[in-house]
Amino acid sequence: MRFSEGPEFTKGHGTQNDFIVLPDPDGELELTDAHVRALCDRRRGLGADGVLRVVPAGAVPDAPDDVDPDVWFMDYRNADGSLAEMCGNGVRVFARYLVEAGLVEQSEFPVGTRAGIRSVRTHPDGGSTVDMGAARIFGDSAATHGGREFAGVAVDLGNPHLACVTEADLDALDLAEAPEHDGGLFPNGVNVEFVRPTEPQRVRMRVHERGVGETRSCGTGTVAAAVAALRADGESTGRRIVDIPGGTVQVDVTETTTLLTGPAVLVGGGRLDAGWWRQVEGG
Ligand SMILES: N[C@@H](CCC[C@H](N)C(=O)O)C(=O)O
Q: At which residues is there a site annotated Could be important to modulate the pK values of the two catalytic cysteine residues (predicted)?
């Protein structure tokens, strides 16, 4: 069966943080919140943690001014339809897509995001490294979950994080519910990471993502986790290997920036049914 009229899509993931990639080279795709929610729904749609629209920055009205209009822009949406400034796994999958689709020829190139330009390097083994920029610590805070308080650090990676280093048993956490956070410090919501050191320079992490729920990985979250783990060890630079339920990534924190390295997988693709797409539009 061929679905020849609806939008084209590719499904991909980075350490099982999964995305639907929608190419929109002319900036003409009418992508509503309802489309995003339906696409990401694991029963009535394709299923994903988020949607990545591939569009020239010049066709995105809210693209930051310092992003060149000709650069490919990652228009990221969470599964609930909300916009986010940045997605670390998403940008790595996005980069892999650009290369495989022949939209870029180099292995190192800039990607536009709502948090600004991110430089990405794709590796021959299918992995990629993204320069996430400097992580900005903007306070100490706490998450409350399961009647327990977890001290954490607020980290800005373009999007907001609360990374809580803990000795708690991560497997015992029920992240079906969102942890409570300080709405004053995080007026637009927050991604919450629970981070447990396991070996020197290695941590485990579970995450509850704003606009999604628990995911099997969060790239910006792993960077926040590494920053918090280094801080807990009295360091501000260094490497941390981060194990998440969906795999393993490497985070390097320098004086000036942070680098996230990990696998990026394209699973397959096709066309959405035009009738389904139209029917979803309204609700
Ligand atoms: N999974 C992403 C983060 C996606 C955005 C996040 N849910 C937010 O709302 O800030 C990642 O890999 O960084």
A: 161, 209
State which CATH number among 3.30.450.40, 3.10.310.10, 2.130.10.10, 3.30.420.240 fits the domain covering 136-256. Answer: 3.10.310.10
The residue contributing the CA closest to ligand 1 atom 3 is: 87
CA distance 250 to 16: 15
17 lines ligand 1 (CB under 6 A): yes
CATH fold of the domain at 8-132+264-280: Diaminopimelate Epimerase; Chain A, domain 1 (3.10.310)
Question: 74-113: per-residue pLDDT in tens?
Answer: 999 999 999 999 999 999 999 999 999 999 999 999 999 9
User: Which atom of ligand 1 is the closest one to the Cα of 49?
Assistant: 1
Q: Which of 212, 259, 261, 265 to mutate to test the pocket of ligand 1 (most atoms within 8 A of CB)?
A: 212
Task: State the amino acid at position 95 in one-letter form.
Answer: A
Whether residue 258 has its Cβ less than 6 Å from ligand 1: no
pTM of this structure:
0.97
Does the C-beta of 210 come closer than 6 Å to ligand 1? yes
Q: Which one is catalytic: 29, 52, 71, 218?
A: 218
188 is in an annotated binding site: no
**218 an active-site residue?**
yes
Residue 63 burial (10 A CB sphere; 0-12, 13-18, 19+): buried
* Whether 40 is catalytic: no
The pLDDT confidence band at residue 5, using thresholds 50, 70 and 90, is confident
Span from the CA of 270 to the centroid of ligand 1 (angstroms): 25
